[in-house]
């Protein structure tokens, strides 16, 4: 084979963020933008020649075209074999599992996760390493440096690969195996949870559940696992057809964007007992009860506290990790269990080392992310199946399980206020201003709140000792309350400032208060300390999660 060597100009903006490179589709469709990034990944992989790579995506607009390009580039770069999800489909957790199961060198995942899709939406590329997890910072930095100097890329002659039919074909000399995107993952889930028990629950006449795939990648997974294997009714599975533009909706499972599901679960009459949704690429989860929302930070804590109820975790869990802005609810559980709770920067890549070295079994993030050591990505359906298994064992409602948890451990009132699409200059000014005020804050009293500690979070990986700086401004008060500020690394337009607010309440008589009201003192202070109004002229956040 004679690969074509194409001359190209480097781009200076291909720095992967919290979870891969995300840009609007227009960027990725522009001349050589995708090609350059893929070649930059390939140039950074020592053992690429002859290796096996996994390829697939969340099915969004440009997924199929991108797959054709990447296959031709893989063949030209000497890749030994590609395992491709049929039709170009692989959820992020399924891709992670397949990389591990078939001992691939890594995988290229085409997704912009919860960002909207379509010709005017976003696209994204992630590289995952052989443990199945997102590339660590050392590698993403190397890819970025390579992309800034790239002058050529390799691609095989144009030809259309048949990506929809199961089986193997060859592209030049490279075999491409088109695999069922669902089966391996569904088997893995069946090996973790008690499907028999969940089937009984689902079949019970007084139990109704519903799941919203939001026209994103989890649709086929839900149909197989929740529908075929667990017996959930067709009508209980909503929006299971993956669409290139997600039906024009925002595939983000939260109370604002998952409107259809929320309307069902908050109906005044006959609401199901259990509701769940996942995001564009299937790694997030939202859990709802009848007229009840489970905060994702609480979800992690509750799963950890109840781990022994699940077949795979009967022996108990080794440790927990949560991203720094995630509420400290999991810490209370770890304390009681006598295990360690690690605090890592935002993004799943920081959990990989802890999982690989058996330091932790569960990990999670406030942004609707939860997962365990079965793969190296967060896993939406895993968390949903966990909850179903728990409901089946406990024979109790979602709300009761959460309330009993608060009664035992206390409640961490929690909310995130986002200021989206700020001019980058304003966002940087806010962060600079906060950084410069850190030294003076400790010891300062603001009404009932006294600052105990204020810093810019630095993480030292306990396994490889790599250092990650500037991972968020933390203001910690002596009653355990916290205000955290950080800039999003997944947005594609301007800058998004996230403010995370948390207040702990041990008193069970105060577990039924309004969240925003309970946090109001912290909210006001967070706006004042960061000079939000002066710098942005904004009175309100654009989103409250
Ligand atoms: C957001 C979340 C973070 C998550 C990341 C990727 O990042 O806050 O917790 O790991 O998205 O998730 P950021 O930098 O915008 O805050 V996904 O499901 O979008 O791949
Ligand atoms: Co996602």
Topology, element by element:
Blueprint: E1 4-7, E2 21-24, H1 25-29, H2 33-43, E3 52-57, H3 63-76, E4 81-89, H4 92-101, E5 106-110, E6 122-128, H5 137-147, E7 152-155, E8 167-171, E9 174-179, H6 183-192, H7 195-203, E10 209-212, H8 218-229, E11 237-238, H9 259-265, E12 274-277, E13 286-289, E14 292-294, H10 296-305, E15 319-323, H11 329-337, E16 340-344, H12 352-356, E17 362-365, E18 369-372, H13 380-394, H14 398-409, E19 411-422, H15 424-437, E20 445-446, E21 449-456, E22 459-460, E23 467-468, E24 473-477, E25 482-487, E26 495-505, H16 515-518, H17 520-529, H18 532-536, E27 543-544
Parallel strand pairs: 3-4, 3-5, 4-9, 10-11, 10-12, 15-16, 15-17
Antiparallel strand pairs: 1-7, 2-6, 5-6, 8-9, 12-13, 13-14, 17-18, 19-26, 19-27, 20-21, 21-24, 22-23, 24-25, 25-26
This protein binds alpha-D-glucose-1-phosphate-6-vanadate (VG1) and cobalt (II) ion.
What features would you describe in this structure?
The chain has 545 residues and is an alpha/beta fold. It folds into 3 domains: 4-181, Alpha-D-Glucose-1,6-Bisphosphate, subunit A, domain 3 (Alpha-D-Glucose-1,6-Bisphosphate, Chain A, domain 3), CATH 3.40.120.10; 185-409, Alpha-D-Glucose-1,6-Bisphosphate, subunit A, domain 3 (Alpha-D-Glucose-1,6-Bisphosphate, Chain A, domain 3, 3-Layer(aba) Sandwich), CATH 3.40.120; 411-544, Alpha-D-phosphohexomutase, C-terminal domain (TATA-Binding Protein, 2-Layer Sandwich). 32% of the residues lie in helices and 25% in strands. It has a 7-stranded mixed beta sheet, sandwiched between helices. A hairpin with an 8-residue loop joins β12 (274-277) and β13. The longest helix has 15 residues, at 380-394. The chain is globular, with a radius of gyration of 23 Å. It starts with a strand and ends with a strand. The mean pLDDT is 96. It binds alpha-D-glucose-1-phosphate-6-vanadate (VG1) and cobalt (II) ion (CO).
């Amino acid at each position: 084979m004679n690969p074509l060597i194409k001359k190209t100009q480097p781009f200076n903006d291909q720095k992967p963020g919290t979870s891969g490179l995300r840009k609007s589709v227009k960027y990725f469709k522009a001349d050589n933008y995708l090609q350059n990034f893929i070649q930059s990944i390939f140039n950074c992989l020592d053992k690429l020649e002859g290796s096996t790579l996994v390829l697939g995506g969340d099915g969004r607009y440009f997924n199929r075209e991108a797959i054709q390009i990447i296959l031709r580039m893989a063949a030209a770069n000497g890749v030994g074999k590609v395992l491709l999800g049929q039709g170009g489909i692989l959820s992020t957790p399924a891709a992670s599992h397949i990389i591990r199961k078939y001992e691939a060198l890594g995988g290229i995942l085409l997704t912009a996760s919860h960002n909207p899709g379509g010709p005017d939406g976003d696209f994204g590329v992630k590289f995952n390493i052989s443990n199945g997890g997102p590339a660590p910072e050392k590698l993403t930095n190397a890819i970025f440096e390579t992309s800034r100097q790239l002058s050529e890329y390799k691609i095989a002659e144009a030809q259309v690969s048949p990506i929809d039919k199961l089986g193997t074909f060859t592209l030049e000399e490279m075999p491409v195996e088109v695999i069922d995107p669902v089966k391996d993952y569904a088997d893995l889930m069946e090996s973790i949870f008690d499907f028999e028990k969940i089937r009984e629950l689902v079949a019970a006449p007084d139990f109704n559940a519903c799941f919203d795939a939001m026209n994103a990648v989890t649709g086929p997974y839900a149909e197989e696992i929740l529908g075929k294997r667990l017996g959930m009714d067709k009508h209980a599975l909503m929006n299971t057809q993956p669409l290139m533009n997600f039906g024009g909706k925002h595939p983000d499972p939260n109370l604002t964007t998952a409107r259809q599901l929320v309307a069902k679960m908050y109906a005044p009459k006959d609401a199901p007992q259990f509701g769940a949704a996942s995001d564009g690429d299937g790694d997030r989860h939202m859990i709802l009860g009848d007229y009840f929302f489970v905060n994702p930070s609480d979800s992690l804590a509750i799963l950890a506290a109840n781990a022994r109820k699940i077949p795979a975790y009967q022996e108990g869990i080794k440790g927990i990790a949560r991203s720094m802005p995630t509420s400290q609810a999991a810490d209370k559980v770890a304390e009681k269990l006598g295990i360690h709770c690690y605090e890592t920067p935002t993004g799943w890549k920081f959990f990989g080392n802890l999982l690989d070295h058996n330091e932790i079994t569960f990990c999670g993030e406030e942004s609707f992310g939860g997962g365990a050591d079965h793969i190296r990505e967060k896993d939406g359906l895993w968390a949903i199946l966990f909850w179903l298994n728990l409901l089946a064992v406990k024979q109790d409602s979602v709300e009761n399980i959460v309330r009993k948890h608060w009664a035992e451990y206390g409640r961490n009132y929690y909310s995130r206020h986002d200021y989206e699409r700020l001019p980058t200059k304003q966002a940087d000014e806010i962060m600079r201003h906060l950084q410069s005020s850190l030294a003076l804050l400790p010891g300062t009293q603001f009404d009932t709140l006294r600052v105990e500690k204020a810093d810019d979070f630095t993480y030292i990986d306990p396994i490889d000792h790599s250092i990650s700086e500037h991972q968020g401004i933390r203001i910690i008060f002596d009653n355990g309350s916290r205000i955290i500020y950080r800039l999003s690394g997944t947005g594609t337009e301007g800058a998004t400032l996230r403010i995370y607010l948390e207040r702990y309440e041990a008193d069970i008589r105060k577990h039924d208060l309004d969240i925003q009201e309970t946090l109001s003192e912290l909210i006001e202070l967070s706006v004042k300390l960061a000079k939000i109004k002066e710098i942005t002229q904004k009175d309100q956040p654009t989103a409250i999660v």
